Amino acid sequence: QPDFDLQALRAQFPILQRQVNGKPLVYLDNAATCQKPLAVIEAMDQYYRQTNANIHRGLHTLSQEATDAHEEARGKLQKFINAASHKEIIFTRGATEAINLVAQSWGRANLKAGDQVLVSMMEHHANIVPWQQLRDQLGIELKVIPILENGSLDLQAFEELMTEKVKLLAITQVSNALGTVNPITQLVRQAHDKGALVLVDGAQAVPHQAVDVQALDADFYVFSGHKMYGPTGIGVLYGKEKLLEAMPPWQGGGDMIDIVTFEKTTYAGLPHKFEAGTPAIAEAIGLGVAADWMLDLELGKLAAWEHALLDYATEQMQTELPGLRILGEAPGKAAVISFVLEGAHAQDLGLLTDQLGIAIRTGHHCAMPVLHHLGVDATARASFAAYNTLEEVDVFVAGLKRVREMLV
Ligand code: PMP
């Protein structure tokens, strides 16, 4: 049993009360996006009911209140990852946009033909494609750290690849497809020893553990709001102030300028230099509330419960479903189970479990290279959040058994 009041936690998530196809919802697609607590829903609702206005520059009361709320949210995110300054928190649409920003701004300004960017085999497409685009634009090389059979990073290969030619290590902290947790502090240190900068994709890490960017010493750290109990359409690029200061703006438009004439434009300071156009104001406010909401939780207890769910589900699946193959069994992995069931196509599994009210993800999980490497092109994936229960695991495993009887 969990070391916190699980029913009280569940009660904060209205969606968990609903039925799907006449059955109580069993939501096991948390790595794709997790559900939102009332605190977040109500903060956004309240913003639109009471405050809505465009921010910055407006002198009227609503505009000032909206500006204050938006900037307060930035402060909450600064606290959430323990950044040294609010200037280091750039709001983006999510992890994807944050990585593209670094590739196109820092990358174009600092890389030249022959330089290397090092990624890992287990990256999400969001941390592969922007570097490929940059490779095609600049003639840089993209190198890939392989993984071991169990889904862990091949640390020996990493040491061999981590040469002085590498200017940036861009790597995920936690894999969305396999659940692997990388030894990120050690990787950052080793990359720095070789003179490279490090971008950490924290999209799957922030929902489960406290992150301290100063202790980690990452140069860039990116994540999405919707995976940490916040809204969609908002995320964060953290960058060390000195680096961000030296980087050119990426997108141009309103809000990111100082003075504009047709001859020349000067830019606003950090963080606004990187936030062109009207931002996602309600979403930033919602994300700020989500960050505070998480800081108030005892994250260690929630993480322990997620691991208990993972262990129980893994054991039940292995005993009840012979022929099931789990992909990714790295020690200490996150609460994600990617699997294939002999004779049952992942897509059929997804459709039929949905009939039972169970939400799991099926497909390539935006990580085609790693699935290909493991010899499959699709898996089914159950991913847990702290509001899941052992009873839900039982419903899930019984559902898989039923579906398999229908398919095989
Ligand atoms: N990186 C990882 C590890 C992810 O799991 C995801 C989302 N699945 C992303 C990046 C991209 O996040 P978003 O689509 O919210 O930009």
Automatic annotation (TrEMBL):
Protein family: Belongs to the class-V pyridoxal-phosphate-dependent aminotransferase family. Csd subfamily.
GO terms, biological process: cysteine metabolic process
Protein EC: 2.8.1.7
Alphabetical UniProt keywords: Lyase, Pyridoxal phosphate, Transferase
Keyword Endoplasmic reticulum: no
Single GO molecular function: lyase activity
Co-factor requirement: pyridoxal 5'-phosphate
Function: Catalyzes the removal of elemental sulfur and selenium atoms from L-cysteine, L-cystine, L-selenocysteine, and L-selenocystine to produce L-alanine.
Top enzyme class: transferase
Reaction equation(s) it catalyzes: (sulfur carrier)-H + L-cysteine = (sulfur carrier)-SH + L-alanine
Name used for this protein in its record: Probable cysteine desulfurase
Ranges for domain Aminotransferase class V: 26-396
Pfam families: Aminotran_5 (PF00266)
InterPro entries found in the cross-reference section: Aminotrans_V_dom, Cys_dSase_SufS, Cysteine_dSase, PyrdxlP-dep_Trfase, PyrdxlP-dep_Trfase_major, PyrdxlP-dep_Trfase_small
Gene3D superfamilies (UniProt xref): Aspartate Aminotransferase, domain 1 (3.90.1150.10), Type I PLP-dependent aspartate aminotransferase-like (Major domain) (3.40.640.10)
Protein origin, superkingdom: Bacteria
